[in-house]
Amino acid sequence: MITPREAFDVSTRQSTLALARRGTEFFDRELHALTDDELDGDSLLPGWARRQVVAHVASNARALGRLAQWADTGIETVMYASLEARNAEIAAGSILSPDALRESWAGSAADLDHRWQSLPVNRWSASVRNGQGATIPLRDSIWMRAREVWIHAVDLNHGADFEDLPGEVLTRLLRDIVEVWTARGDAGYRLTATDSANESYGSATAVAHVTGSLAELAAWAAGRGSNGVVSSTGETPVAPRWL
C-alpha cells in the first residue's frame, strides 16, 4: 500500500519531470530557430556566444546523467571531476560544427531522459552531490534540469523571455533564489509579484521592497535585467548573486 507521503513524492516527481520535458522542448525550439551563423552571436550571458550556452546545457544533461548513474548503481559518479573538467567539457562542445553541436544537445537530452525513465522508483531518493558539493536526493536533480533548460532558452537571446516561462517555473525559481540569498545572509529584499495575488518572497522586515510582475521579478532576481521592476529605495539595485 502506498502511503500519502509516497503518493505525494510520486506526484511531485512526475509534475517536475513534465516541467523539465516541456523546458527541453522549449529550448529545442529556440535552438532550431537559430541559423548556423546566429549560433556565433551573443547570448545574454556576458562573454558567451549562443553556441557556448548550447554546449553548457548539453554538458549539464550529461552531468545530471552521471548523478542518475550514481543513484542507480550506488557507485559514486560526480557531476564533474573538477571545475576545470566542467569548463573543458563546455569549451570542447562549443567549438563543434553547427550540426554536431545540435546533435550533441539532442543526444545529451535524450540520454538523460532515458536514464530517468529506466531508473527504479526506489532510487530517486538515493543521495548524490550537486555541483556545489551539497548532498541531495536524486529527485532534486529534476528541478535543477528544469530551471536550466527554461532559463538558458531565454539566454539564447533569440526572442524568448521570462514571460514565456510557466508560472510554476517562475514561482519555484524565485523561492530558490530568495532561499539562497537568505542562507547566505543577503536577506535585504522583499519581492512582491503584482500580477500573482501579490504573492511575496523574502523577509517582511527587509529594507528594500521590490515589485514587478512574476516574470519581471524572476528575471531580475536571476540577474537577467531589471525591466519593469521597481524598488522602494528608488533606483533598482542589482540583485545579489544567486549561483
UniProtKB/TrEMBL annotation:
All copies of domain MDMPI C-terminal, residue ranges: 164-241
Domain of life, per lineage: Bacteria
GO molecular function, a single term: isomerase activity
Mycothiol-dependent maleylpyruvate isomerase metal-binding domain mapped to chain residues: 21-156
Coiled coil: none
Segments traversing the membrane: none
Keyword terms: Isomerase
InterPro entries given in the database record: DinB/YfiT-like (IPR034660), Maleyloyr_isom (IPR017517), MDMPI_C-term_domain (IPR010872), MDMPI_metal-binding (IPR024344), SCP2_sterol-bd_dom_sf (IPR036527)
NCBIfam families: maleylpyruvate isomerase family mycothiol-dependent enzyme
Name of this chain's protein: Maleylpyruvate isomerase family mycothiol-dependent enzyme
